[in-house]
Every structure is written in structure tokens, then in C-alpha cells.
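Q: Please design a sequence for this.
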């Protein structure tokens, strides 16, 4: 199919993107709840406009899921398209050059919160289906759409939703538009993602804060006990000391390591980009290996006792820490959380008590088989439009839907988005290149055709 429909309607598509970006669908802050719901309704309306059917805005225990479908392609494969309509908070507002929810188009880019992560990408498969239906009156494959409103807070409602609607979501392949590329001129697809598990550790040593002059030296100090406990979780060489943490970690092949290191920043460049004086991690592992295919354990926050100006001579009764772990294939959040719990139980100083509370937002690691026909379809579609082979990226972050689809539905996910990683995701002055927006529409139109061939 040619791309004349896109050329004819591109101005409208850009105006629709701007309208979508005006909605401050910040999922993490309760005061934006109505705006998140407004974004869900906008998304449902856009599916309707494209010619999709059975469109629903479906309740979850959190923000709604938007569903739509077109299932008239007979025995052709069924493809589930995924994305999210929620965005990160825009603060700090004083670092933005223009209001984050008043989109500005300048130098071929649209500036707004959610532009690159990921409202522009949400529209790509919708526009592609619209073009096929308006020009050809049919799609070469059956399609389903699932757009959630909680990805930016770890998709806490998604597992229960998918469990309840397994039949509705049943498909042969999922395509996630929540993806991107390292460089504007080098297309890419993500083939692996790390998972995520986290806990909060609460340590208590007394019923209340105590005067250090009256009790100091004779009673437990919760903050010091927590510091000791956290210190036991890692060895001096950077390896993780939690018993059994590496039990299910599979060593990557030498070829995989070569591919990772060839496409990743060199140690000196990585150090400069991170703004650190030295690197620290597992011995003899490169930054690429450490951040893409190795598991981690990090303290994300720690607090307790007096933190105001000046001195308050108290012995803290309680102290707290948040710890998260990035996981690799064959590790599971449940197993790692249990191992953290056992470690805390074993290493908490006996004069204090510690409680481990699992955090929401867990994710299973995911790796796409490199010979999967869905990946071949993506590569062919990109080659047809851009005349380039897409890079196969391994990403150190998490997208919960990928692991859930494999675990609960037995469905693999290919990743195809057109965000570029220099576009300020989660940062002030986030933007998206409109050239990528147009290019992505073309690739998705071609992808529908290739999926009919490779997934049959």
C-alpha cells in the first residue's frame, strides 16, 4: 500500500497529537485522576475515528484500560497492539522553556510532557489501521488494542486485568509501541528488557525517639542498624551478597557480549555521561553488560531520625529504606522478594526489629527469541521504508506488559517505537521529532502487511 493517505492527512494527525498532549494524564498524582480518565476517553474516541470496533474504556483497580479491535481477517494472525496514555509528572516546572501541557512546535519538533514517552507512538498503529481501512476497507491481519494508564507507575493493575480478560486479549503476537532508538538515523527494535522487584525495609529499635544524652550508648539506634543491614547486601567488590540472588542468572554468550559492547558506550564515555568519578559494579563486567544483561540491587531512598537544620540530639526509633532490583531472564520478582526478606531476617541486628514490605510495580524480565517471525516482520517493514536494518537493542529498564504477556498468555512481544533516546523522556523540555512521527506511520502501515506474511 502506498502512503498517499498519510500525506493527505498529516496536518490533521499532527493537530490530533497536539490535542492529546494537552491532557495532563499524570498517573502518579491523585489530583490528576479526572485528566487521566479524559486521556482514556480521548484514546477510545481516536480508535473509533480510525474505524476500529468494540471499543471499551474498561475499569481496573486503578486507571482505566482502553480496548478496541478489528477481527474480520479470517484465519490471518491476530496482533495485539500495546501502549500507554499516562505520563510522568512535569516538575520541576521552572526548568521548562514552555508550559509542559501547552505543546509547542519548533524546528520540526513538538515539545510537551508525554511527547516522546509515549503519546506520539500511541498514535502510530492507530493511524496505520485507519489508513488501511480508509484506503483498502480491510486489514491484512486481525488486530486488538490495549492502552493502559498506569505504565509510568509500574502497571500495578495490569496483571489482574489480564488474568480476568485472557480470552479477550488472546492473540498470536503483541507489538509494543513503547520503544525507541539510540540515534535518529538508526532504526531499532528492543529484544530484551530487565524485570523489576522492590521492597521497603522498616527498622524499629524503640517505641519512640530517645534523648541521646539520657539513653545514648545503652539503647539500639534504628538508623545505624539499618545502615548495617543495607551494608550486608553487597560485597566490597560490587557483587550482591543476598544468598541465592544469582541462582537463576544465565551467563550470556561471548557473541552476545560482543554485540552488547560494540553498541554501548566505552567505560570512559559512560563515566563522563553519568557524571561520576569512578565506576563500581561486578568485577570484570563492562558497563554495557552491567546495565543491560546483569541483575542489580540498589538503595533508592533511605530516611529516619532528625533531618532539619541544625542539631537535634535524638536516637531514632525507626528508619526506612527502599530497595529495588533489576532482574534478568529466569529471575522472578516473587523469588527475589522472598530472598530479600530472608536476608533481612538473617542480618537484622538482634536488638532491633525489621519488616519487609513488597512494593507495587514489579515486572518480569523479557527476552524475545531472535529467530521469532514477529521480529523478522519488523525488520522487513523497517527495511522496506527506511532501507536500513534495525539494530537489536537490549534495554536495562522494564516494561511490565512484556513479561506479563509471556507469563499469562504465552504471547511474545516485538517492540517498535520511534522515540529517540535524546528526546528528554521524564525530563524537562521533553520533545518528539515530527519526522519520526511521519516515518513511524509508514513503517506501521508496512508492518501490518509483513505480519500477515511472517506470522501465518
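A: Design:
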Amino acid at each position: 500500500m502506498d502512503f498517499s493517505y498519510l500525506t493527505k492527512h498529516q496536518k490533521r494527525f499532527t493537530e490530533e497529537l497536539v490535542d492529546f498532549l494537552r491532557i495532563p494524564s499524570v498517573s502518579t498524582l491523585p489530583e490528576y485522576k479526572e485528566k487521566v480518565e479524559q486521556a482514556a476517553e480521548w484514546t477510545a474516541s481516536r480508535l473509533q475515528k480510525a474505524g476500529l470496533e468494540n471499543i471499551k474504556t474498561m475499569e481496573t483497580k486503578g486507571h482505566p484500560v482502553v480496548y478496541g479491535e478489528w477481527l474480520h481477517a479470517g484465519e490471518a494472525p491476530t496482533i495485539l497492539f500495546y501502549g500507554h496514555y499516562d505520563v510522568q509528572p512535569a516538575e520541576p516546572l521552572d526548568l521548562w522553556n514552555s508550559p509542559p501541557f501547552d505543546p509547542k512546535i519548533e524546528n520540526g519538533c513538538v515539545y510537551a510532557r508525554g511527547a516522546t514517552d509515549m503519546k506520539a507512538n500511541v498514535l502510530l498503529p492507530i493511524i496505520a489501521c485507519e489508513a488501511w481501512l480508509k484506503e483498502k476497507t480491510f486489514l491484512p491481519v486481525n488486530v486488538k488494542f490495549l492502552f493502559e494508564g498506569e505504565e509510568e507507575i509500574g502497571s500495578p493493575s495490569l496483571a489482574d486485568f489480564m488474568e480476568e480478560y485472557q480470552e479477550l486479549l488472546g492473540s498470536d503476537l503483541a507489538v509494543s509501541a513503547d520503544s525507541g532508538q539510540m540515534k535518529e538515523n538508526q532504526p531499532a527494535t528492543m529484544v530484551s528488557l530487565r524485570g523489576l522487584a522492590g521492597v521497603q525495609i522498616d527498622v524499629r529499635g524503640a517505641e519512640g525517639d530517645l534523648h541521646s544524652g539520657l539513653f545514648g550508648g545503652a539503647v539500639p539506634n534504628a538508623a545505624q542498624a539499618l545502615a548495617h543491614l543495607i551494608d550486608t547486601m553487597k560485597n566490597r567488590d560490587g557483587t550482591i551478597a543476598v544468598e541465592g540472588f544469582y541462582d537463576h542468572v544465565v551467563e550470556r554468550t561471548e557473541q552476545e557480549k560482543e554485540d552488547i559492547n560494540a553498541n554501548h558506550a566505552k567505560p570512559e564515555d559512560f563515566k563522563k555521561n553519568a557524571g561520576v568519578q569512578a565506576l563500581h559494579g561486578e568485577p570484570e563486567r563492562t558497563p554495557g553488560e552491567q546495565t543491560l544483561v546483569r541483575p542489580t540491587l540498589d538503595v533508592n531512598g533511605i530516611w529516619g531520625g532528625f533531618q532539619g537544620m541544625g542539631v537535634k540530639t535524638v536516637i531514632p526509633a525507626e528508619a526506612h529504606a527502599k530497595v529495588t532490583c533489576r532482574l534478568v531472564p529466569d529471575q522472578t520478582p516473587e523469588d527475589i522478594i522472598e530472598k530479600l526478606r530472608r536476608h533481612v531476617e538473617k542480618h537484622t541486628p538482634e536488638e532491633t526489629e525489621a519488616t519487609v514490605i513488597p512494593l507495587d510495580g514489579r515486572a518480569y524480565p523479557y527476552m524475545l527469541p531472535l529467530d521469532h517471525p514477529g521480529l523478522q516482520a519488523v525488520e522487513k517493514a523497517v527495511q522496506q521504508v527506511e532501507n536500513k536494518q534495525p539494530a537489536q537493542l537490549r534495554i536495562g529498564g522494564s516494561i511490565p506488559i512484556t513479561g506479563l504477556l509471556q507469563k499469562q498468555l504465552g504471547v511474545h512481544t516485538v517492540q517498535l517505537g520511534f522515540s529517540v533516546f535524546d528526546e528528554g523522556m521524564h525530563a524537562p523540555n521533553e520533545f518528539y521529532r515530527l519526522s519520526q512521527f511521519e516515518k513511524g506511520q509508514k513503517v506501521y502501515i508496512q508492518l501490518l502487511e509483513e505480519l500477515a506474511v511472517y506470522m501465518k
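Q: Thanks. Anything notable?
A: The mean pLDDT is 96. The chain has two domains: 4-193+365-454, 195-249+295-358.
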